[in-house]
């Protein structure tokens, strides 16, 4: 069997097209323009790439993009003061502080300073709590994107066995909550799980979000299962190459011969994350403007 490849790029493009159409409709009736503020501290090259990409896509769907770049040694108090200013700025509907932050800054303190109604990352404890108890709120972008990809394969997740490998606050835990809301039977597995391959083989839906290149092997996968690979890891360069290959947390070539459907890396979950950030920004705008 050869798995269906879930085209995250195409699904993200459809989502962005729908967002752009809605933003244009709001503008046409004089309803205003959603705005997203992104704050980057320091100049981590990977973060620079993400932030540039976010800004381009924000403008492409017709939203306003505000970018703030602070030096790596910025005092925490200055960052908190900027967040406070953005909280009170009516043109700003969404605030994202790019992670990771330099070691002298307490990321949790910064996240808690963001107005939960503008927390388009969905990382604030109020939004995490809303998700846990099933109240409407802003949901983290990567889990949301992963769920949308799953729903492109399965109309109904009810009763399916879902195994999420990874228990981070950013992906594993919120995705488990989303799957539970969809009536899946959810297992969260992690580095201490006993016989992880056997646990994974029990999954109709297997999500890998551990950050370890090609950890999930083909024989960990139940034939016909749907596999979502959240990992994005760069391998060491091959001899003579400038850069190593990008791979996920799943050994793709093995997995595709067993799975029913699988996301590629790159081109799977990655493109969905920014599309969901724009979706969250539109949701925050609509909530703030009635
Ligand atoms: N760094 C890498 N991905 C993300 C993300 O989704 N949100 C934030 N704030 N920082 C990140």
From TrEMBL:
Catalytic activity, as annotated: (6R)-5,10-methenyltetrahydrofolate + H2O = (6R)-10-formyltetrahydrofolate + H(+); (6R)-5,10-methylene-5,6,7,8-tetrahydrofolate + NADP(+) = (6R)-5,10-methenyltetrahydrofolate + NADPH
Gene name in the database record: folD
Key word Lipid metabolism present: no
Pfam families: THF_DHG_CYH, THF_DHG_CYH_C
Source species of the chain: Pseudochelatococcus lubricantis
Functional note: Catalyzes the oxidation of 5,10-methylenetetrahydrofolate to 5,10-methenyltetrahydrofolate and then the hydrolysis of 5,10-methenyltetrahydrofolate to 10-formyltetrahydrofolate.
One function term, GO molecular function aspect: methenyltetrahydrofolate cyclohydrolase activity
Subunit organization: Homodimer.
InterPro entries: Aminoacid_DH-like_N_sf, NAD(P)-bd_dom_sf, THF_DH/CycHdrlase, THF_DH/CycHdrlase_cat_dom, THF_DH/CycHdrlase_CS, THF_DH/CycHdrlase_NAD-bd_dom
Residues holding NADP(+): 166-168, 232
The entry's keywords: Amino-acid biosynthesis, Histidine biosynthesis, Hydrolase, Methionine biosynthesis, Multifunctional enzyme, NADP, One-carbon metabolism, Oxidoreductase, Purine biosynthesis
Ranges where the Tetrahydrofolate dehydrogenase/cyclohydrolase catalytic domain occurs: 6-121
Annotated family: Belongs to the tetrahydrofolate dehydrogenase/cyclohydrolase family.
Taxonomic path: Bacteria, Pseudomonadati, Pseudomonadota, Alphaproteobacteria, Hyphomicrobiales
This enzyme's EC code(s): 1.5.1.5, 3.5.4.9
Residue ranges occupied by any Tetrahydrofolate dehydrogenase/cyclohydrolase NAD(P)-binding domain in the UniProt entry: 140-288
Statement: the UniProt record of this protein carries the keyword Glycosyltransferase: no
Name the record gives this protein: Bifunctional protein FolD
Domain of life: Bacteria
Protein's pathway: One-carbon metabolism; tetrahydrofolate interconversion
């Amino acid at each position: 069997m050869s798995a269906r490849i879930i085209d995250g790029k195409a699904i993200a493009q459809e989502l962005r097209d729908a967002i752009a159409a809605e933003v244009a409709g709001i503008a046409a009736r004089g309803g205003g323009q959603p705005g997203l503020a992104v704050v980057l501290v320091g100049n981590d090259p990977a973060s620079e790439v993400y932030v540039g990409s976010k800004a381009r896509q924000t403008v492409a769907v017709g939203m306003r993009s505000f970018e703030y770049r602070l030096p790596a040694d910025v005092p925490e108090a200055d960052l908190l003061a900027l967040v406070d200013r953005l909280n009170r700025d009516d043109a700003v509907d969404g605030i994202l502080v790019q992670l990771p932050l330099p070691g002298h800054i307490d990321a949790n303190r910064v996240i808690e300073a963001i107005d939960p109604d503008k927390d388009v990352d969905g990382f604030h404890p109020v939004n995490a709590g809303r998700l846990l108890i099933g109240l409407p709120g802003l949901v983290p972008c990567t889990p949301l994107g992963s769920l949308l990809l799953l729903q492109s394969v399965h109309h109904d997740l009810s009763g399916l066995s879902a195994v999420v490998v990874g228990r981070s606050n950013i992906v594993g835990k919120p995705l488990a909550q989303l799957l539970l809301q969809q009536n899946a039977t959810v297992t969260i597995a992690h580095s201490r799980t006993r016989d992880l391959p056997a646990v994974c083989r029990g999954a109709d839906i297997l999500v890998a979000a551990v950050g370890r290149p090609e950890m999930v092997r083909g024989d960990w996968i139940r034939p016909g299962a749907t596999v979502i690979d959240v990992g994005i890891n760069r391998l060491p360069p091959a001899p003579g190459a400038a850069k190593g290959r990008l791979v996920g947390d799943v050994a793709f070539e093995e997995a595709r011969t067993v799975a029913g459907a699988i996301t590629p890396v790159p081109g799977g979950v990655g493109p969905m994350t920014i599309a969901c950030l724009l979706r969250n920004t539109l949701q925050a705008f609509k909530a703030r403007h009635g």
